[in-house]
User: Fold this.
Amino acid sequence: MKRRGMQTGLIGVLASALLIFLSPLTIWGLTADHHAPSAFSDIPASYFSQVRLAYHIFYGHTSHGSQIVTGLQMLNAQNPTSYAVPVIQEYDWTDLGDPDWASITRGFLSSNPQTNVVMWSWCGQLSWLTASEVDAYLAQMSRLEQEFPGVVFVYMTGHLDGEGPLGTLYANNERIRSYCAANHKVLFDFADIERFDPQGTGYPYGTDRCEWCEAWCATRVCPTCEDCAHSHCFNCYQKGKAFWWMMANIVGWLPPG
Assistant:
C-alpha cells in the first residue's frame, strides 16, 4: 500500500507538471497582442516570481526590439519587488535580419542549457521581405523547436511602417499570425500592440512612432522613460506589460474567461 501510494503521488505530480507545461501553451497556442497590456492587472502576484524562478530568456534584438526591455525596466521602476525584470540574456547587436540568427541561437543554447525561452525581434525587414523569405524564417523557427524541445520559442511580427493593410508589412505580419495560429505557436504580436490604444481603437496607418501614444498621454498621466527607441515611452510600457502577460501564460496562468 505504501509503494502504491508513492507511485500514485509521483504520477499525480508528473501529471500536474505536464498539465502546466501543456496548458495553454502547446494545446491552444498563445498570442500576446493589444489585449495583453489591458489584462496585465489580472495577473496574480505570485506568477511574476514564478516566471523569474522558472525561466531563463535569450533575446536577440536591435533598437526596435529594445522597446520590450525598456518597458520591463519601466515596470521594474514602478514596483521593484513585484515587477523585477526576469532573467534575460540580451544579444543586442543583431536581429532576425542577420542570416546567422538561427546558428547563433544553437550556439547559445548549447553553451547555456539552462535557457528555456528564446525570442528574436525584427527591425524593418518585414516591410520588404518576400513571402518565401518569411516562410524561411518560420521554417527555421520550427527546426529549432524540434532540435530543442524543452525551449519555448517566441515568434514575432514586425513594427508598423505606416503603409497600412495594403502594404508588404501587413501581409508578412498576417502570414506569421496565420502560421502561429494554425500551428499553436507562441507569438509576440509587436505590430498589433502598436496599432491599438488601450480603449481598443485601431490606427492601421500608424507607424512605430506610436502617434496615438502622444495624444493618449496628452490627456492622461503616463509613465515616462529616458528613451523608447524610435517611439513613445507609453509604447514601450505597453510592450513590457504584454511580455509579462505572455510569460505568465507560459508559466501556467490561465486568464479568467
